[in-house]
Amino acid sequence: MSTVGNSANIFWHECPVGKQERQKLLNQKGCVVWITGLSGSGKSTLACSISRELHSRGNLSYVLDGDNLRHGLNKNLGFEAEDRAENIRRVGEVAKLFADAGLVCIASLISPYRKDRDACRAMLPESFIEVFMNMPLDLCEARDAKGLYKLARAGKIKGFTGLDDPYEPPLKCEIELSRRDGICPTPGAMAGKVVSYLEEKGFLETK
Ligand SMILES: Nc1ncnc2c1ncn2[C@@H]1O[C@H](COP(=O)(O)OS(=O)(=O)O)[C@@H](OP(=O)(O)O)[C@H]1O
Ligand SMILES: Nc1ncnc2c1ncn2[C@@H]1O[C@H](COP(=O)(O)OP(=O)(O)O)[C@@H](O)[C@H]1O
Q1: How many Å lie between the centroid of ligand 1 and the Cα of residue 41?
Q2: CATH of the domain at 30
Q3: What is the count of structural domains for the chain?
Q4: Is the pLDDT of residue 176 over 90?
Q5: With a 6 A CB cut-off, is 42 part of the ligand 2 pocket?
Q6: Which ligand sits closest to the CA of 89?
Q7: Ligand 2 mean position, distance from CA 50 (Å)
Q8: Quick check: CB of 184 below 6 Å from ligand 2?
Q9: Spatial distance between the Cα atoms of 140 and 8, rounded to a whole number of angstroms
């Protein structure tokens, strides 16, 4: 019997079919690809490109997109630091479940605070791949695909990441994606780099 957080008198129940059996069935190893970066840096586009590439290779993946999850699981959270921290904690726990199911879980969230990302990493030793979308603020703002930078500049959105809210870039991540000679690689090229990394590390087969 244990107490975890506010849950007292709880018991962990083991099931006969575990992660190893699921991985053998899927011929892949569960892991979490965690994509972090500013709004407009290309996180969602990359996440979908990775998922498409994995699908074409016969690997099962699932995308957890910050924006999308805020329509349901995280609809009770705002953008204050503590809400962003809870957002990342919650998504980290869900991602861990997907990895335990044997999937390649692709999480794409701004996830601005290093300590929050590191807490997710600590939940997934040896199976957490942090991908930093290192695109400068001026590029993200020039894109402004959702018009949010314009609204933030006009004072209609307070605490917008990169403008009047912090973003702490990774100090040490598995993969850093950035422009080359001022040119942004295509989503396909970036997805290829991530998938090659997963292959090299043995996540895409168990046989
Ligand atoms: N204040 C503020 N700051 C940053 N982003 C904002 C904000 N308000 C709304 N949005 C929209 O929310 C998306 C980011 O949600 P996340 O869950 O990824 O954010 S976080 O990880 O909790 O910081 C983000 O989506 P992306 O552009 O895909 O990153 C925005 O569309
Ligand atoms: N590799 C890329 N090259 C050029 N434009 C891109 C690339 N990736 C994303 N974009 C564009 O940038 C904008 C933001 O992309 P998105 O994936 O929504 O970013 P985020 O999820 O980080 O907010 C979109 O208009 C998208 O088409």
Answers
A1: 11
A2: 3.40.50.300
A3: 1
A4: yes
A5: yes
A6: 1
A7: 14
A8: yes
A9: 45
**Is residue 207 a part of any domain in this protein?**
no
Residue 29 inside a domain? The answer is yes
Which pairing describes strands 104-108 and 2-4: parallel, antiparallel, or unpaired? unpaired
Rounded to 10 degrees, the C-alpha dihedral 72/77/79/80 comes to -170
8 A C-beta contact, residue 128 and residue 31: yes
Q: Is 187 in the pocket of ligand 2 (CB under 6 A)?
A: yes
Pocket test for ligand 2, best of 45, 131, 160 (most atoms within 8 A of CB): 45
142 in a domain, yes or no?
Answer: yes
* Stated pTM of the model: 0.98
Q: Which residues span the domain enclosing 107?
A: 18-200
Pull the structure tokens for residue 150. 């314009």
pLDDT band per the 50, 70, 90 thresholds, residue 76 = very high
- Gap between the Cα atoms of 170 and 112, Å rounded: 9
Residues designated catalytic: 111
